[in-house]
Design goal:
The complex is a heterodimer of chains A (256) and B (260).
Chain A lengths: L1 H31 L8 H13 L2 H33 L1 H14 L8 H8 L3 H25 L3 H9 L4 H38 L5 H10 L3 H29 L8
Helix pairs in contact in A: 2-10, 3-4, 3-6, 3-8, 3-9, 5-6, 6-8, 7-8, 8-9, 8-10, 9-10
Chain B lengths: L3 E11 L5 E12 L4 E5 L6 H9 L6 E6 L2 E2 L7 E4 L12 H5 L1 H5 L4 H14 L15 H14 L4 E5 L7 H18 L2 E6 L2 H7 L2 E5 L7 E6 L11 H25 L1
Parallel strand pairs in B: 3-8, 3-9, 6-7, 7-8
Antiparallel strand pairs in B: 1-2, 1-4, 4-5, 9-10
Helix pairs in contact in B: 4-5, 7-8
Classes of the chains: A mainly alpha (256), B alpha/beta (260).
Chain lengths: 256, 260
Amino acid sequence: MRLARHLWTVYGGYALGFASLFVIWQLASIYLVSSVLFPPPTVVFKKGLLLVKNGVLLEHLAASLQRILAGFVAGSLLGIPIGLAMGSFLPVRKLLEPYTEFLRFIPSVAMITVAVIWFGIGEASKVFLIIYTTIFIVILNTAAGVSAIAPNKIRAAESLGATPAQIFFHVALPATVPYILTGMRLAMANSFTTIVAAELIAANDGLGKMLWDGRLFMLVDEIFVSLVTLGFLGFVTDRMFRWSIYTFAGKYSPAT
Amino acid sequence: MPLVSFHDVQKTYRSLQGVDYPALEHFSLEIEVGEFFCLLGPSGCGKTTVLKMLAGFEAPTAGRILMEGRPVAGASRDRAVVFQGDDSLYGWLTAVENVEFGLRMRHVHRTERRERARRYLELVGLRGQEQKYPAELSGGMKQRIQIARVLANEPKMLLMDEPFAALDAQTRTLMQMELASIWHATRTTVLFITHDIDEAVTLGKRIGVMQAGPRSRVKGVVDVSLDGARSRTDDAFLRYYKQVYEMIRDEVAKSLSRAD
């Protein structure tokens, strides 16, 4: 009874919110826009279940996730040290800012054509695009985090006898972690946009490809399955990201 | 030989527009080993500048600052700093980890540094709070961590920049009493910056009163010969209060008229 009440206070609102979303969708597709072009959730879920059973959905899902993960990890691993260097050393910042400030205004979607010309329609072009969409946000947030460190944190370390290298690893780096994590979370959201756009244009599989095929063959149900999957996937990954921040890096969490 | 001496120190700041502001001029001061020296002055007189230069965070424009006869060059663990706010604490470290930070940087063995950190946390009255993060502690407790952190590092002197200014009145009085007893127990040399006459008379063995800026210097030094626990209602305490007050009154008026 106690547990039930606890679960209700924590997840009750969410459950209700999601339920109302599907109820409104169901009602709208029956009474408001009664058309094959706007299938109700019951039809979409039935179709989704079918696609899960025959493995098609999971195949597309795995393809998209793999690309996102590879590009996201690589982009973060590249972006963090560059951001740290830019935030720590003014000459590095001045040298690299033209690149970051110029390139970050060219949306990754605009780079799809170039990526396909350079790397073909295989995995390489997708991973390149995810790296591209990840790296600048991570760099920017990391560098901002370094410059936001309270000078007294550095001064305290100096007068406690820390060397410059120790100050970097024991003060500057941990103080920047919340900013890095925030940058990565934003980059993750961007990765979803980018992967769908890239797969729409050139891919053999993936959720974007599924959308495109749906349009091509007028499989409206499949389009909606893909859309719902994307929303669900984004929600779950973001929650997992938040959850792991609070669990494994609670003291570094951006909120505090 | 005094532990620290300022010889005819000058500090000029240049604004972004290129205008020079002479904060300190002909500033001279000597601090003896083991004394509690309060530097008192109206706001904007450059007392924090004095502390920053002695800490090694800033260099003087002219003049010499010596510690044990050697010029001060950059920060050093000889001169530990307690800052006014709590932004110098490391939010990702627990209280005990904050306190042992200096020892860890010097590769003191883990069990030894833990032991020392715990001892100093106990000295500042934070027993049982070792595993809490700074965000979980009150303003007064955070200042205690700062004090324990510098004491654990065993510096030759403590530089304290209005460490209790942001605390509420009750906590401030309590912290002053505790700092006085810690100083009696350790006899570490202290340079304590404050704008509060009451605080200076409560804590200081000597009180240096500064002029209003610009071109500030020490206007005069008052020897406070009060022993043991000082009471704000003692006649002697009030006499010193009055003496310092009369020295600083005109300076405060000057600094206010300049601020307008």
